[in-house]
Amino acid sequence: MPDYFTRSSKPNEEEMAGIIKQWAYPLTGKNDLDPLFNRIGEARIVMLGEASHGTHEYYNWRSYISRRLIEEKGFNFIAVEGDWPDCYHLNRYIKNYTEEGKGAFKVLHSFNRWPTWMWANWEIVALADWLKQHNQALPLNRKIGFYGLDVYSLWESMENIMQYLEKTDLHALKIAEEAFKCFEPYRYDDGRSYAKATQFVPELCENEVVHLLKEIRAKLPSYNTDHENVFNAEQNALVMVDAERYYRAMIHGGTHSWNIRDDHMVQTLDRLLKLHGEKAKAIVWAHNTHVGDARATNMSQQGMYNIGELARLKYHDHNVVLVGFGSYKGAVIAGRSWGASMQKVEVPPALSGSWEHLLHTTGIHNRLLIMNDFHQDIFMENHIGHRAIGVVYHPQYEKYGNYVPSILPLRYDAFIYVDETTALHPLHILPDGHQTPETFPFGV
C-alpha cells in the first residue's frame, strides 16, 4: 500500500505555531464542536481516537460526539476496541432485552479482562445509561448498538458459542466441545502458552476452530433465535479463528500479529455495517494508533497498517472521518506492567518538538483542528512526534518509545487537543470502586 511518510527534519516551530493560532478553533464547550460536525457531513464512519486508554476527557468528548452523531446524523451503533462477548452483553442491556436487565454498573463490572478499566468505568456507565434511555422509544430494528471489535476473547467466545449451541444445535455443540478441549490446557495466561506451543506444532488447534466456523455458517439459516443472537454465534466463531491466528503469530513477533488484529477489527466493522443495512453509519472508538491512518506515520515503514487506513481504502475518504486526540500533560489510569494493578499515573509535559508541545506553545487552551486547514507544506513535509500512551506506561521512559512520528494533517481529518487531562474513573479500582464519582454523569 502507498504511504504518506516523507522525511525527518527540524521544522520552524514558530511558523507552525502561528498557523495553528490562526486556524485552530478554541474548544471551551460543546457548541465549539460545530466545525467538526460540519466536517463529518454525510460520512458513514467516524472513528474517534484517544492518546491513552485511561483519560477522562477523551472518553467524555467521545461520548458527547457519539450522542450527537446518533441524534443528529442517524448513526446506528458504536463499535469499540473491546472484546466481542462483553460488549455484546452491554449491547443487549442498552437495547432493553429483558434477560439483560441488571443495570449498567453490574453489566460493566463483569468486564474482567485486564485492562479492566478500559470499559469498566463510570464514563461508560453514563454513556450506557444514555443509550438505554434513548433506545426505549425506538423499535427493535432501530435501536442503537454497542459492539466490540477486538480479537482477544478466544475462551470467552468459545464459552458463548457452547451456551448458544446447547440450546440450538447439539451436533454443532460436539464440534465446539472438541475445539474447547484443544485449547483448554492453554486458557489461563491470555494465550501466551498456546503461542509457545505452536513453535513445535504450528497448526495446533487451527483445524478445530475452522471446522467449527464452517459448521456454524452452514447451519445459520436453520437457527431461529433473534437475528442478533445468530450474528453473535457466527461472530464468536470468527473471533476464535482469528484469535488462534493472532496467538500463533505472537510468538514470531514483528508486525504480523498487529495486522491480524486490525484486519479482524475492520472485518467485524464491515459485518456490523451489513447487519444494520446498506445505509448504516458507524462510530468507532479505538486508540489513535489504530484510528490515525498508519500511512502518515513510521508504522508504514515497519509493514504495519491499521483500521483507519483500511477503512479509508475500503470505504473511500469521503465516507470516513478520523478524529485524533492528544494532550500536553495530566493524569492517566495505567499499569506498570502487563496484568499489574491499575493506578493513577502523572503524565509529564510533552517533549519539546512534539505535536503536543507545539500546541501547548500556542497558549494553554483546548483546541479543535480541522485538518483541511493545515495542508501547508510545513505540516505536510515533516513528520513530528505525536504521543501515544498504552495500558502499560512508564512516564520516566516516555522519550524512548511513546512518540509516533506523524504527518498530522494526513493522519487525521480532525484533532482535539486538551491541554491538561485527568484520569479515568474505573469501576474496579480500590478502595471505592462501588462509589459513584461526585461529578457523575460527567458533563463536558
Helix-residue proportion: 40-55%
Outline type? globular
The whole-number mean of residue pLDDT values reads 89
Biggest sheet layout: 9 strands, mixed
Q: Which spans of ≥5 residues are poorly predicted at pLDDT below 50?
A: none
Could you tell me the strand content as a percent range? 5-15%
Rg (CA only):
22 Å
Tally of separate helices: 17
Q: Count the strands? A: 11
What structural category arises from helix and sheet content? alpha/beta
Report how far the terminal alpha carbons are from each other: 39 Å
N-to-C SSE string, H for helix and E for strand: HEHEHEHHHEHHHHHHEHHEEHEHEEHE
Description:
This protein is of the alpha/beta class. It is 42% helix and 13% strand. The strands form two sheets. Strands 1, 2, 3, 4, 5, 6, 7, 8 and 11 form a nine-stranded mixed beta sheet that branches. The longest helix has 24 residues, at 227-250. The chain starts with 12 loop residues before the first helix and ends in a 24-residue tail after the last strand. The model has no long low-confidence stretch (mean pLDDT 89).
